[in-house]
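The instructor's notes for this session suggest beginning with a concrete chain rather than abstract definitions. Hand out the sequence below and ask the class to guess, before any prediction is shown, which regions might be ordered.
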Amino acid sequence: MKNIKEIISLMRNPTQKDIDLIQKSYDFALNAHKEHKRFSGEPYFNHLFATAKNIAELGMSATAISAGFLHDSIEDVGVDPEEIRKEFGEEILFLVQGVAKLGQIKYKGTNRYNESLRKFFGAMSKDIRVLIIKLCDRLNNMQTLEHVPKTKQLRIAKETLEIFAPLAHRLGIKKLQRDLEDLAFTYIYPEKAEKTKNLLVKKKEEHEIHLDKFRESIIKKLYKNGITNFRIDYRVKGLYSLYKKLERYENNIDNIYDISALRIIVQDITDCYRILGIVHNSWKPLLGRIKDYIASPKPNGYRSLHTTVFSGDGSIIEVQIRTEEMDKESEYGIASHLSYKSSASHNKSLYLVKNIISQKNIDDIRNKNSEELIDIPIWIKELVKYQEATGNKFLEEIKKDILEERIFVFTPKGDVIDLPLGSSVIDFAYMIHTDVGNHISGAKVNGKFVALYTKLQNGDRVEIETKKSAKPNKKWIEHCKTALAKHQIKSAISRELKR
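After discussion, reveal the predicted structure:
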């Protein structure tokens, strides 16, 4: 029998009320699913326990953990929703029903599946925990996928790689993203996964020899400069992440320098920059490989200093420097903050989430209730609007606009605008505000005037000029990447024709 103490031990300072709630949901789920078996023949409860444990490992609250225990009780064993409401309250019932919505229709690329996704994203837009619980549920499903009939394995793996892993990335939950990607990769592309794994094993062993020597040298340098409060560990690139990078480098693994990276973790930001200076003063950095994600975090909230240096023994090594808080955020993303409700941690949580949300309607966002900002990234709320903008192409468009590779560009004030790769100045303008897009008359990128059709690059600084007399035209649509920008242009043209 699975021991509830495993989950309690993962929680941060649980109260007796928290423990009682988790014990109650544990007992309820165990009884409700007592006759329920998995494809492997093991008790279904084992899956519920694993899901709840995954949620606890992310540092989530007792409420979320309890919903993890209960998330299949309505759909799979017919528990009355009123019973959940009576025993556990409205909040947990909402989470359970929200997670269940995607399980009702299977992934076949059909309109029915699109509708199921809409409902699921609708629940997510009200409470981000719905998505995080679903990701934890999906992780255990992927870990036990070998027991599922082969006819279903490919469908589940594709859904995981195309939808759930990118959503984990958007939330900054690297731990879930990496595991979901690697597990799905082995089912969808087994031969490529095996080839990549063999390359990784071979190169990892070679890298670790150099990393061990370099680690000792860095420790000596830091102590010599009076820095003693730090820890150092390694990070090995995920299998699927390496495969995608190999594709970009024509399968030449020798051109990939971050297969393994050395992480230096300290207590405060000042030490991060100080250590960067020590590293560069001691080892020659590789030009173009110095990244300051502390000053300019990635759209999903990731913060760290990255540099790649010549180690002196013929190898090239990536070094990542960050604080303990940044290290935690890099693995757990938004989930690492959702259990914080005290005012002392409120601003810290808001800082992270303001960096992972889309900056559409920036002035409106700043005026919103900060508690809402913590719980609901704005880009998830925007997903709900895709039904109007995309119709039957809903799944195709969210994968292209929301879940594929992203870039981040800056407004003149330094606000980060999160866009899909391939976006133009026009997409940027509409992401700021519909009125800005509808009246754009010119634009500067990095201080230079450019055509409105110009494709933006990561890190560009964009300034939009508007005129009341300026109006969209049909040609703009050809140069837009985002479905929402295309929809707004079509709507504006349609309104103009009706006048």
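Then share the key points. The CA atoms of residues 300 and 356 lie 4 Å apart. The chain has 25 helices and ten strands.
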